[in-house]
Design goal:
The chain has helices at 3-11, 22-25, 54-66, 128-137, 155-160, 192-196, 255-268, 281-288, 303-313, 328-342, 355-366, 369-374, 376-395, 443-459, 489-508, 520-523, 530-542; strands spanning 17-19, 47-50, 76-80, 100-104, 111-114, 119-122, 176-183, 188-189, 226-234, 241-249, 273-280, 318-326, 349-351, 431-435, 437-439, 467-472, 475-484, 512-513. The protein is an alpha+beta fold. The structure holds flavin-adenine dinucleotide (FAD). Flavin-adenine dinucleotide binds at residues 79-87, 89, 91, 105, 124, 147-149, 153-154, 156-158, 160-161, 163-165, 227-228, 403-404, 406-407, 425, 432, 549, 552.
Length: 561
């Protein structure tokens, strides 16, 4: 037993799990990003603690502070909730060459729910699927704030990263009403409102996001000041009626005309239509088609190949996707109005509750399996209906793995070898990085951005898969998945160069990422700037010994060794 093992096992209870052997630690170093293929600085995880209670988190933080001045014994702690931060770092610690104890919070999965108010309090390990199962048991009246990352991801981890989805409450941190946690110096955190409340159950804190006095909950997000042990989230109630819409734009040039219409819908139907996704042809194909090129060839589809796939699968130049939530009448009227708003640019608007879709589903489900497999055309229709159904589930707050297929586009073994298996891009060694910049929601700016991505990605043999998520009428974030073959070091390097080019050139054009991967957090942020100097001052108070995730959204760190 090494020293680290014995000092930690003396500090924590036997409700928690601790291991220090390499075979058990190393899976946590497996990410989709391929960082270590690029440099000699190897990330390290010296121990993993899976706490069975929150007292042991406190004990570990206290121990790290006590030994922080001892060259030989000191260590940093990197907390993860489910460790599936694919494309941004997965479960890897941000800084290399630092002795790290990975704190895997996935066993902490208590759920408390006030059904009347729709406020759910979660421990960090609660996954989308666990919350979904819990809510279904209670009558399925509320929606899970799902993401494309799927059922096995933590709700708390995603909110801490300030991720977003496409259900009713799109902005996941926006829906967080209360946080409890521990700062890096070991002090307990709860809001001032909670502290002032002298009632028995002190619940009112969970109903009001902003508390009293300086707002500190936000300091737990995209930072390394503290560990969240509990989070309360406002869940969107399932509405009596729902419909998702799919609007097909045949011509690429229709993008400019579509933007003001999307803006109008988001403004006029605020609270009824939450966010709208706009995806280009290649991006849609990446979810529903097979890569026509050998997966490990590191080559983009030719325009011809895209055209063939698009014709085959009836994929237009742009697809607009959104959802309508409300009473039966509201949904009925909104459907009509949305159809009429987009009529000027498309006569192909499909609603998920169109009778034709339910008839098609009934017919397909009635047909014998053998026939479906023999007749290619029928098989294709079935696939399309399945995708439509799964997309609808996501928009209704039911997690599934539909979007994960994208990560396997260039997997060395080919995406099909994973068919029927539980997809997990990190474990399966998929290559994926995200470029996720905010873009001005103006037609010209978005067109310029599209041209920039379509010009830059192919220089590095990366497919320019473009999605715009229109979060509000005035705010759009684009996500470009940089998908590559992780098994080929030269390809990994080229993919990273692609991302770097997108980021550095994009910044000059005003495209600023809303979220960064663990390497960008090291090189992109200017530690001398006013903002990051202030962050360091806060860090020196909340975590003076720099024990929590050194380097995470904090460029001015003192490096522990
Ligand atoms: C195909 C695909 C689709 C995706 N779609 C989406 C999407 O729609 N929206 C989206 O936002 N993301 C998406 N992602 C990105 C990512 O996988 C998700 O955001 C995922 O939810 C993040 O991982 P996690 O929930 O396991 O968080 P974790 O990995 O557990 O946490 C993320 C980070 O937060 C910090 N942290 C975690 N827990 C704590 C804690 N308790 N206290 C303090 N700090 C903590 C850690 O630094 C950690 O590295 C997608 C990824 C893929 C591959």
């Amino acid at each position: 037993m090494n020293k680290l093992h014995s000092q930690i096992s003396n500090a924590i209870s036997n409700q928690s799990t601790l291991f220090t052997d390499i075979e058990k630690c190393s899976p946590y170093l497996q990410g989709t990003e391929g960082f270590d293929a690029l440099n000699d600085k190897k990330r390290r995880i010296d121990a993993v603690v899976i706490p069975g209670n929150t007292d042991d988190i406190k004990a570990l933080i206290e121990l790290a502070n006590v030994v922080s001045k001892n060259e030989e014994l000191r260590f940093s702690i990197h907390p993860i909730s489910s460790g599936r931060n694919w494309g941004y770092g997965t479960s890897q610690p941000p800084t290399a060459n630092v002795k790290t104890v990975l704190l895997d919070l996935s066993d902490l999965n208590k759920i408390e729910f006030d059904e009347e108010l729709g406020l759910v309090t979660l421990q960090p390990g609660v996954t989308q699927q666990q919350l979904s199962d819990y809510l279904i048991k209670l009558g399925d009246k509320y929606m899970v704030p799902v993401t494309g990352a799927g059922p096995d991801c933590s709700i708390v981890g995603n909110a801490i990263e300030r991720g977003y989805g496409i259900t009713h409450y799109t902005d996941h941190f926006g829906a967080v009403t209360a946080i409890k946690g521990l700062w890096g110096n070991g002090t307990q955190y709860q809001s001032a409102l909670f502290e002032l409340d002298k009632s028995k159950d002190k619940f009112v804190d969970k109903t009001y996001k902003w508390g009293v006095g300086p707002y500190l909950d936000g300091l737990f997000t995209q930072s390394n000041f503290g560990i969240v042990t509990e989070m309360t989230i406002r869940l969107a109630a399932r509405k009596p009626a729902f419909s998702s819409f799919y609007i097909k734009l045949e011509l690429d040039e229709l993008l400019e005309a579509a933007i003001p219409l999307i803006q109008r819908v988001l403004r006029d139907y605020e609270g009824i239509v939450s966010s709208i996704n706009l995806m280009d042809k290649r991006r849609v194909l990446s979810m529903i088609a097979d890569n026509p090129i050998d997966n490990n060839q590191h080559q983009n589809m030719s325009d011809n190949q895209v055209q063939m796939q698009a014709e085959n699968l009836k994929t237009p130049s742009w697809t607009i996707v959104g959802s309508i939530y409300g009473s039966k009448n509201i949904v009925k009227v909104t459907k009509k109005e949305i159809k009429s708003i987009f009529k000027q640019i498309s006569n192909q608007t499909i609603f998920s509750d169109d009778p034709i879709i339910s008839i098609a589903n009934k017919v397909i489900n009635f047909l014998p399996e053998g026939l479906l497999n023999r007749v290619a055309m029928l098989k294709k229709v079935k696939l399309q209906l399945d995708s439509l159904h799964k997309a609808k589930e996501i928009m209704q707050g039911k997690p599934n793995r539909l979007a994960l297929k994208l990560a396997y586009w260039r997997h060395e073994k080919g995406a099909n070898s994973f068919e029927g298996k539980v997809l997990s891009p990190g474990k399966d060694k998929c290559g994926l990085l995200w470029y996720a910049p905010l873009v001005l929601m103006k037609a010209n700016a978005m067109r310029e951005y599209v041209e920039f991505v379509r010009k830059t990605c192919p220089l590095f043999n990366i497919e320019p898969f473009i999605t715009f998520t229109n979060l509000r009428h005035d705010c759009v974030d684009s996500t470009i998945p940089i998908v590559f073959d992780l098994s080929n070091p030269a390809v990994v390097k080229e993919s990273h160069n692609c991302l770097k080019k997108l980021v550095t050139e994009g910044l000059k054009l005003g495209y600023v990422p809303y979220r960064l991967n663990i390497e960008q957090q090291q090189w992109l942020l200017d530690k001398e700037s006013d903002f990051w100097q202030t962050v360091n001052q806060i860090k020196s108070v909340l975590d003076p010994n720099n024990i929590l995730s050194p380097g995470r959204y904090n460029p001015g760190l003192v490096i522990l060794k």
